[in-house]
């Protein structure tokens, strides 16, 4: 998108239903639904929900026929059983485990989140709106027959599957969560219509221990998966360098009709479950870049979801509010103070002080990969490995 158009309001359907906060594994679990409520309250406090071209919508839960686009019938029945009998464990289906505790709303809340992402995809494909956001979504670890990594139903995969059902022929999925987007990759491993791209912390140091550069797609879809695992400790400059070294060229070569993205906020330096050192400011820049890439290569069709992120007060609400603002074409100045009413709501809910500004005070910058490669640098080694593994499949030079 040209520089002059960055602040032009875009059409946005923001999918939100307060009931998504019932996706609650219980006290002490990292996946605290408070992060969702605080994000929406910050969106509202900044007036982003009522801006030009913005519509806040709710969609019904995904029905069984929709869930079966990705998940097996046996698994959906197992999730329903877990909802009726949360005291029972079902490790074969990943339910009632250390990561994925069972709870009475496990099916209904998961299906509701999935329904928002599927409806977002439908709205973008129909042309009702160029952009749609479901920050409650992004549950990218769920497998066809098993819950995994706090994820029960894989809403990004379901959104993509619905787009394929509607006739889309090329869909790109870009995942910038700190964890590998393994469930989405698995769902479309052998489907040349879907390109999955994941930047994540190296599998040697983080769950789910997948996402190696050598994972490039099934026999009928070589090059349909791209993975760039980053060394632990990678900060803004390295993260942005890696993103720009991989994603834009792949999207230019693939020319997707729709861009689906996952914006896990757990790359942040304060996240308690991972080891990257990224700021809210860099996360905002990546959202802006993906916005521009959607306009450049996908006719503006963009479906964005949330994902991981366990710094519930300090990080997630600001990062996803920036995402909403970007998708609405109304970016929030990082120096903006967080509204006093929102800070009071944060304290009321958590008894913790809220961040005072929409920035971490960073001014991220990076060197373009084409400007020089350091063979002794671990990050550059990782970038080169990711490019060499997948670029030739798309006629690109590594």
Report the β-strand fraction as a percent range.
5-15%
- Largest sheet report: 8 strands, parallel
Instruction: Work out the helix count.
Output: 11
Low-confidence runs (pLDDT<50, min 5 residues)? 1-6
Shape: globular
List the strand order in the largest sheet. 2-1-3-8-7-4-5-6
Structural class: alpha/beta
Radius of gyration: 19 Å
Number of strands: 8
| CATH topology group | Arginase, Chain A
CATH superfamily: Histone deacetylase domain
**Nearest-integer average pLDDT:** 97
Order of helices and strands: EHEHHHEHEHEEHEHEHHH
The CATH C-level name is Alpha Beta
Description:
By secondary structure, the chain is of the alpha/beta class. It has one domain (3-394): Arginase, Chain A. The protein contains eleven helices and eight strands. An eight-stranded parallel sheet has the order 2-1-3-8-7-4-5-6, sandwiched between helices. Helix 4 (106-126) runs parallel beside helix 5, helix 7 (236-254) packs parallel to helix 11 and helix 8 (280-297) packs parallel to helix 9 (316-327). It is globular, with a radius of gyration of 19 Å.
Summarize the model shown:
The protein is α/β, with parallel strands linked by helices and 398 residues long.
Key descriptive features of the protein:
alpha/beta; Arginase, Chain A; eight-stranded parallel sheet; 8 strands; globular
SSE order and pairing:
Layout: E1 12-15, H1 34-45, E2 54-57, H2 64-67, H3 73-84, H4 106-126, E3 131-134, H5 155-166, E4 171-175, H6 182-187, E5 194-201, E6 225-230, H7 236-254, E7 258-262, H8 280-297, E8 302-305, H9 316-327, H10 340-350, H11 378-390
Helix pairs in contact: 1-9, 1-10, 4-5, 7-8, 7-11, 8-9
